[in-house]
Amino acid sequence: MLFPTITFAIFFLVVLPMSWLLMHRRFRWQLFILAASYFFYGYYDWRFVFLLGGSTLVNQFVALRIHASQRDGVRRAWLTAGVLANLGGLAYFKYYDFFVSNATNLLARLGLGVSPTIVAVALPIGISFFTFQALSYVIDVYRGTFEPRTLLEFAVYLSFFPHVVSGPIVRAAEFLPQLRERHDPRKVDSSRAFFLIFMGLFKKVVIANFLGTNIVDVVFANPKQHGSLEVLVAVYAYAIQIYADFSGYTDMAIGLALLLGFRFPQNFDAPYTATSLQDFWRRWHMTLSRWLRDYLYIPLGGNRNGRWRTYRNIFLTFLLGGLWHGAQWTFVVWGGIHGGFLCYEHWRQTRREAAHHHPAPDTFRGRMYRRLITFNVVCLAWVFFRADSFSNAGDVLNRIFDPSHWNQAAPLVTGGVLLAIGAGLVEQYIPRDALARTMSWFSRLPPAAQGVTLGFVLLLTNSMGPRGVAPFIYFRF
Amino acid sequence: MPPPSRADLPTTIKWSDSSQPEPEPRAQPSIDDLTGDRDSPPRRPLPAGKVLAVGLIALLVGALLNAAGIRKTALGQPVGWRRDVSTFFADRLYDVSHALYLDRLRVDLKDLLGRSTDDAVNTRLPSPTTTTTPGPTPTTLPPRVAFSPTHQARLWVGGDSLSDTPGSELITAVGATNAVGVLGPVDSHISTGLARPEVFNWPAYLKTVLTADQPDAVVLTFGANDDQTLTGSGGGEPFGGPDWQAEYARRVGGLMDTITGISSHPKLFMVGIPPIRDMARFTNDYTIINRIFSAQAAARRGHVYYVDTVSALGTPTGGYSDFLSNPDGTVVQVRSSDGVHFTRAGGDRVAGAILSAMRQAFDLDSWRTGGSTTTTTTAPKGTGPRGRSSTSTTPTTRLP
User: Fold this and answer.
1) Of A65 and A116, more confident
2) For residues B106 and A16, what is the distance between their CA atoms, to the nearest angstrom?
C-alpha cells in the first residue's frame, strides 16, 4: 500500500477517526493500531507479517532477558544473541544470494567449479528499517538507557505503519514514551502535518517521478548513447530525484504520524546546502546517520583511540552503511567515497589545527564554493549508488569526462527537466522560518479553506505527475 | 517543511571532531529536540473531527478537479465488481465536475503541459488486413535489406515494463553493429498491452509515433499484462477461452498489420514472454499468449519475427531461475527480485535473441567486407500459411 494511492487514502480515512476515538483507552488503541499496522504491512505480502511478528517476539524476549539479568556476562551473551539474530535475519533475506553468487564466481575464477544452492530469497519490504529499530531497543536496554516495555507496546513501535516500510528510523526511546503520553484529540497539529504530507506528495509524484522518467532512467540505462551534457544533467537530476523521493516519503510519514498524535524525528534538513560532507550527514537521512554513529561508529571506538583508528572507524562505518543500502558492491563504493572524503576533511581539519591556522572567514562566496564542492562530491557518489554495476558507473563517468562527447546534442535536457532540478535545489534554500510562518498562517485559515487549498494542491500533483506511481526508491533497501 | 537545524542541539552529528572524544551515548535527546520544529511560530491546532473534515474536503475538491483522471484510473482497474463500482462513481463524479466547469482547470493544465491526450479514452482497435487462413507454405522470404554506417536501419523499441531493460541492452548491442541507429530511448508504458485499450491504446499510439518516425525495425514487447478479460471493441471475453483467443489473435494481427503497413514497411520483432517465477501463470496463461504471437508472426513471415525468450532465459528444461550459469561456470542473476523483470544480464540475453532475429531480417555485416550478399532466404517448410515470395540480389551499402 503506497502512500500516494486511493487505497491508502481510504485506509487512513478509517484509521484516523478510529485512532482518535480509541486513544483514551490505551490498551484498545494499541490493539487497534497494531492490527491496522499489520494489515498495512501485510498488504504488500502477507507472508512477511510472520517475519515482523517473529522479530518482535525474539527482540522482546532478548530485551527482557537482558533486563532481568544482573550478571554482566549473561547480559552480554543475551545482547550478542539478539544482535546476531537480527543481523542473521537481515543477512539471510538481504545478502544471502549476494554472498553465495560472489563466492561461486570467485571459486569459478580459481578453477573450482561449485554448484551452490541459490534460493532467490524474496526481500521483505522494510526489513532494514525495522531491524535497525529493534536493534536500538535491545542495545538501549543493555546499556541501561531504556527499560523494556510491554510486548504490545514494543509490537506497536516496531510495526507502526507510518514508518515500518521506509523509515524514518525512530528509536525506541523516541517513540515508546509517546505511547504513555496523554494525546489530546482537541489539539492536533494538523497544519504542519498537512504541509508535510502534501509537500512530500508533490516532491515524490511530480519532481522525483518526472526526473526519473524523463532523464535519469533513460540515461543510466544506456550512458553510451548520450552526450556529456545529457549525462551530467542526469547525474544532477538523480541527486534531486533521490532527495525528492526519499524526503518526500519521510515527510509524508512524519505528517501521517503527526495526524495520529505522534512526533517523529526530522530526517532531512536541506542536505544540498551542506558546506562539507560532515555537514551533509547532519542533514541527509539524519535518523540513519545518528543510528550509525551511536550503534556502530562509537562502539567501534569512535575517535577515542588516535587519528588512524578514527579514520578506520569512519571508513568502516560508511562502508557498512553503504552495504546496508543493498547487496551490491556499488553501494559499498558509495559508502567508501563518503567515508574517504570524511576522513580527508578530518585530516585537513587536524592539519589546520596543528599548524594553528585561523579558520577561513565565513563569507558568502566561500560558503557557496564549499557547497558547490560538497554537492559535486555527493553527486559523484550518487553515480555509484544509482548505477547497477561498475561498468555502468564507469560509462557514466567516462561520458562526463570525455571531451569528445560535449558537442553531442542533448534532447533530454529540456526546460522541464532543468525546472524540476532547479525547483528541487531552490526548495532547500527557502528560509526555514518562511516555511514555518506559512504553516502558521495556514493553521489560522478556516478548516473549509484549508481543505479547498489542499484540494488544489491535489489538482497540481495529479495533473503534473505521470500516470501511476513508481515505488519509492528506498523501498528496496 | 522543517525549520533550520540548530548546531547547538544534541542532534548535531560529529563524525570526526577529534578535539572532543564522543561520550558513550547515555542520555538521548528528547523527541521534541529532534523534530526540527522548535521555536516555530505558534500554529493553531484543530480538533480531530475538524482534521478529518479538512481531509475529506481536500479529497472531495481534489476529486472534482481531477475527475477526468479519476475516470480513466477507474477504467484501468482489473475487470470485475471493483471496476464496475469505481467507474459508476467516477462517471457521476465526472458529470458533476463537468457540469460545474471544474474539469476545465485540469484540461487547461494538461494543455499547458503538452499532455492534452492524457485523459482521453480510445478503445477502437484495428482488425488484421492479412488473411490468416491456412494456405500454401511459403518457401522464400523477402530480401534481406543491407544496412551500413552510411545507411543505418532506423530502430524503434518499446512495449510494457518488460521492454525496459532488454530494450536498453539492445540499444547498446546494436551500437556495435554500426549499421543500426536508434530512434530514441525505449518507449515503455508500464502495465499496458492489448487487453485493455482504455488504459493504453497501443495500435493508435504506434500508428501516430511510427508514422512520424518511419522506422525500419520495430521491437515490441508486451503480453504479460494481457492474461485478463478483454475490454474495448470485440472484448468482454474472460481469459483463455476460444473466443478470447480468437479476439486476442485479431488484435495482435491488427497491430502487426498496422505496424508493417507504415509507409517505411518496418520489420516487426515481437518479443515473447519468458518464464516467470510464478510458473503456473506462465504455463497456463503466457503460453497461450506466446502461441498467438508466434502464429500471427508466422502468418506474416518475413515481415514479423517472433523472438522466443524461453531459450534465452529459461532453464534447460524451460523453467524459471533467478540465476543462470555462464559458459565459464560463473553464475549471474538474470531476473530482478520480483521474479518477472530482468537484471541487466538478463536483458542482455534477451537483447541477444532479438539481435539474432534482426540479423535474419537484415544484412548488418556485409558492409564490413565491402562485398555483396545474396539476399534470398528460404523459409522452413510447413509452418507459415502465407508469404510474400521474392528472390533477389541486393547490393549491400558500401563502406564510405
Assistant:
1) A65
2) 30
Q: A447-464 vs A190-202: helix axis angle to the nearest 10?
A: 10
CB within 8 Å: B51 and A468: no
Query: A236: which residues sit within 8 A by CB, 6+ positions away?
Result: A379, A421
Query: Amino acid letter at A441?
Result: W
Residue B23 Cα, gap to closest chain A Cα (Å): 8
Query: Above 80 in pLDDT, residue A191?
Result: yes
CA distance A363 to chain B (A): 18
Query: Contacts of residue B183 in chain A, CB cutoff 8 Å?
Result: none
User: Is the Cβ pair A269, B2 closer than 8 Å?
Assistant: yes
Choose the weakest-confidence range: A5-14, A122-131, A204-213, B381-390. Answer: B381-390
Q: What's chain A's length in residues?
A: 477
| CB-based contact B145:B394 (threshold 8 Å) | yes
**Left (φ > 0), alpha (ψ -120 to 50) or beta: where does A82 sit?**
alpha
CA B296-B299-B301 angle, 5° bins: 110
Q: Confirm if B146 and B373 have CB atoms less than 8 A apart.
A: yes
A439 touching chain B per CB within 8 A: yes
Grid cell digits, residue A145: 538507557
Could you tell me the CA-to-CA distances from A432 to A245, A438, B35, B40, B64 in Å, in that order? 20, 10, 13, 9, 33
Residue A163 catalytic? no
Mark which residues 34-73 of B lie under 8 Å from A by CB: 34-37, 40-62, 64-66, 69, 73
* Distance of residue B176 Cα from the nearest chain A Cα, in angstroms: 11
Cell numbers standing for residue A373: 564542492
pLDDT value at B107 more than 90: yes
Tell me if A458 and B15 make a contact (CB, 8 A cut-off).
no
Distance (Å, rounded) from C-alpha A463 to C-alpha B69?
A: 8
How far is residue B252 from each of residues B264, B291, B299, measured CA to CA in Å?
20, 11, 11
Peptide bond before residue B25 is cis, with ω within 30 degrees of 0 = no
CA distance B224 to B214: 27
Check the CA dihedral B369-B374-B380-B383 and report its sign. Answer: positive
Q: What pLDDT, in 10s, does the model give residues B204-256? A: 999 999 999 999 999 999 999 999 999 887 778 789 899 999 999 999 999 99
Query: What value does the mean pLDDT of chain A take?
Result: 91
Candidates A143, A266, A439; nearest CB to B34? A266
Q: Considering only CB atoms, which chain B residues are within 8 Å of A174?
A: 28, 31, 34
Q: Which range is least confidently modeled, A56-70, A211-225, B24-38?
A: B24-38
What are the beta bridge partners of residue B373? B394
B389 to chain A, any CB pair closer than 8 A? The answer is: no
| Statement: residue A233 has pLDDT above 80 | yes
**Secondary structure class of A372 (helix, strand, coil):** helix
The arithmetic mean of pLDDT across residues A254-281, rounded, is 95
CA A388 – CA A447 distance, rounded (Å): 47
